[in-house]
Design a protein that fits this description.
Belongs to the AB hydrolase superfamily. Its EC number is 3.1.1.-. One of its GO terms (molecular function) is protein methylesterase activity. Helix content is 36%, strand content 14%. It is an alpha/beta fold. It has one domain: 3-Layer(aba) Sandwich (Rossmann fold). The chain has an eight-stranded mixed β-sheet, sandwiched between helices. α3 crosses α16, α4 crosses α5 and α5 packs across α13. The radius of gyration is 22 Å and the shape is globular.
């Protein structure tokens, strides 16, 4: 799942290869780039990877039409942001991991569209990205699965095209819950990316510790992108430059001085090293100037300065979603195996398989492919390899036609 679910697998991930320009992968530790030219951490727009964007209006979770109530009484709407590409072939409905957004699929979208005839619909799940719903804190598996079904109905009516659900981490779990509940009538295939019930449940206790170790604010989008790459959350700079835009927002919503004290630590650029001494002196001078002020005034001034210097924060507070974690993953393996459609499981390491999936894989109940040298965000770290695996799966089952001379690459397991 994004940063949240990444923590779930920390104890069982294979050793990470060195990141380009990074001295390590531990967030919060000081990291510096190696010698050479400075990399470009500036954000790039979604339009470089997707053809169009749409805010899909749906009914609320009760299934009742809310259009009259919305405009006359409550003045709210239920809209789900989707990014689209392609004009023919099956629809690949992409569900991101927790804390991420549909933009995490941007580079993968460009890769898959060039290999097979398909249509892409990448969805911002509730509470994430640019999706707007009244009860955005309800991230239960049941609610989010219903959201997926509602979006499909709103976009395609009673005759939806053939659809394959593809989900990463939390999104993979929601894809399985959606499929098992028969909420997408035209479903032809299912793909989970790096989510397994056994390892997820084993790591529940470590999630909060991981989240507490993340920076809470960033001084700029560039700073957030730089952190994501240097910390190892996203190992592909190209993907990070578009994906992180959907993970952070400006800090207008911060109301607590105490909650805004955290700053990004551990990212050092060579160009700034000579300035560190003078910055430390200035910082100590500011602290001395505040000593005689009441504590409430000091907190307020610190809050305002932090908000000015670090205007970006996470779009969603993942720590507050803890009550839903168990429901996302418990029983997931058996639900996945019971779905009566062709299934694909993509993993960053074979050690992630739990007992149920190991038996199911030996019985040929699903196709599996391991993509080593990747972190948890497999589709961002290796978008071309994931696109090859998905394209091969689609062609193998005759769901889609190859384009551009694409040759299937059949997995070894």
């Amino acid at each position: 799942m994004s940063a949240l679910e990444k923590s779930m697998h920390l104890g069982r991930l294979p050793s990470r290869p060195p990141l380009p320009g990074s001295g390590g992968s531990q967030s919060g530790a000081k990291m510096r780039m190696g010698p050479g030219r400075k990399r470009d951490f500036s954000p790039v727009p979604w339009s470089q990877y997707f053809e169009s964007m749409e805010d899909v209006e749906v009914e609320n979770e009760t299934g009742k039409d809310i259009s009259f109530l919305r405009y006359v009484f409550f003045n709210y709407s239920y809209t789900f942001r989707v990014y689209k590409s392609g004009s023919e072939g099956p629809v690949l409905l992409l569900l991101h991991g927790g804390g991420h957004s549909a933009l995490s699929w941007a580079v993968f979208t460009a890769a898959i569209i060039s290999r097979v005839q398909c249509r892409i619909v990448a969805l911002d799940l509730r509470g994430h990205g640019e999706t707007k719903v009244k009860n955005s804190e309800d991230l239960s598996a049941e609610t989010m699965a219903k959201d997926v079904g509602n979006v499909v109905e709103a976009m395609y009516g009673d005759l939806p095209p053939p659809i394959m659900l593809i989900g990463h981490s939390m999104g993979g779990a929601i894809a399985v819950h959606t499929a098992s509940s028969n909420l997408v009538p035209s479903l032809l295939g299912l793909c989970m990316i790096d989510v397994v019930e056994g390892t997820a449940m084993d790591a529940l206790n470590s999630m909060q510790n991981f989240l507490r170790g993340r920076p809470k604010t960033f001084k700029s989008l560039e700073n957030a992108i730089e952190w994501s790459v240097k910390s190892g959350q996203i190992r592909n700079l190209e993907s990070a430059r578009v994906s992180m835009v959907g993970q952070v927002k400006q800090c207008e919503g911060i109301t607590s001085p105490e909650g805004s004290k955290s700053i990004v630590e551990g990212i050092i650029e060579e160009e700034e090293e000579d300035e560190e001494g003078s910055e430390s002196v200035n910082k100590r001078k500011k602290e001395d100037d505040m000593e005689g002020l009441p504590s409430e005034t000091q907190n307020l001034l610190l809050f305002l300065q932090t908000k000015k210097d670090h205007p970006y924060t996470w779009r969603i507070e993942l720590a507050k979603t803890e009550k839903y974690w168990d429901g996302w993953f418990r029983g997931l393996s058996n639900l996945f195996l019971s779905c009566p459609i062709p299934k694909l499981l993509l993993l960053a390491g074979v050690d992630r398989l739990d007992k149920d999936l190991t038996i199911g894989q030996m019985q040929g109940k699903f196709q599996m492919q391991v993509l080593p040298q990747c972190g948890h965000a497999v589709h961002e770290d290796a978008p071309d390899k994931v696109a090859e695996a998905v394209a091969t799966f689609l062609i193998r089952h005759r769901f889609a036609e190859p384009i551009g001379g694409f040759q299937c690459v059949f997995p070894g397991c």
